[in-house]
Specification:
The structure is a single chain. By secondary structure, the protein is mainly alpha-helical. The chain has 14 helices and no strands. 76% of the residues lie in helices and 0% in strands.
């Protein structure tokens, strides 16, 4: 018995060491590209061309910043525009997607399944297919060069509705909704005060996905925004590859670094809710 216990203990220790080793390796592989980007933001063009991969920061950060700010690149304006669009899009997406999912879960009506099927079918339509008609529509109503043209369509996000619905089916006790109705609570009061607090983990997870997607979106803003004062960070960074910037790789990497930093901040602010959601799913399972 003692030998069996020792063997089990050794196998358990071996498994833990292997698991930690794999996790550390995956973490390093995930962080490495971002670290290389941050390092290249401190190097000049000659260093990047001579040695493409380096893990040691250099001393040319302020030189790259001077090049970046000396031309038409305005990071403060780009960050402000991107933050307005991404934040508003995220709020619209998570609230109205949760509201739509609530309507698909908490109510019984004949068209519930066909409507959900229609929402799933819309997910299969690429955005590029409808962009021409969408641009013509925005142009006719005078919404080009307007942030609302990028914010309002996020109210209807099929992927977010699907995610919220699946979470709600597993985590929302419909007895609470019925009890609130019996007590005389209105539907919006029930949704805002009872359902939304339960949906925090799902909303936080979807908020990260939506914020990152909206922040990195280049195609649609490039089509709708022609005024340089309305440019987002991805548009500004994409313009760094032309003219004099085509050889200033350090400045380009610095622009990419400034674009990525808000995404790290958003993730760290919301990551604890994702962990809570994973733990809740594990307990329910």
């Amino acid at each position: 018995m003692a030998k069996v216990r020792k063997l089990k203990k050794r196998s358990s220790i071996t498994f833990r060491v292997s698991a930690y080793t794999v996790c550390i390796l995956l973490a390093v592989l995930s962080i490495l590209p971002f670290w290389v980007m941050f390092v290249n933001a401190t190097r000049n063009t000659f260093q990047i061309q001579q040695d493409a991969l380096s893990l040691i920061p250099s001393v040319h950060f302020f030189d790259n910043l001077k090049i970046l700010l000396g031309k038409t690149f305005d990071p403060l304006k780009g960050l402000k525009n991107s933050m307005i669009i991404s934040t508003a899009s995220t709020l619209c997406t998570i609230y109205f997607s949760a509201l739509t999912a609530y309507a698909l879960v908490a109510y019984n009506y004949k068209m519930r399944k066909p409507l959900f099927t229609f929402i799933m079918a819309v997910m299969m339509i690429p955005a590029q297919v409808s962009v021409i008609g969408f641009y013509q529509f925005m142009y006719k109503i005078g919404m080009t060069n307007n942030f609302l043209a990028l914010i309002l369509p996020t109210i209807a996000t099929p992927a977010a509705v699907f995610f919220m619905r699946q979470f709600m089916l597993a985590s929302l006790p419909l007895e609470l909704v019925e009890a609130a109705r019996i007590d005389g609570a209105s539907e919006f009061y029930t949704f805002n005060k009872i359902v939304l607090p339960i949906m925090k983990p799902a909303m936080a997870t979807q908020a990260i996905f939506t914020f990152v997607s909206s922040w990195n979106n280049l195609f649609l803003p490039l089509v709708l925004l022609t005024n340089s004062d309305k440019y987002t960070m991805p548009i500004m960074v994409s313009l760094l590859r032309g003219d004099i910037y085509k050889t200033e790789y350090g400045a380009v990497y610095l622009g990419l670094t400034l674009t990525v930093l808000p995404l790290f901040i958003a993730y760290f602010l919301l990551s604890k809710y994702i962990i809570e959601g994973v733990a809740l799913g594990g307990v329910k399972g």
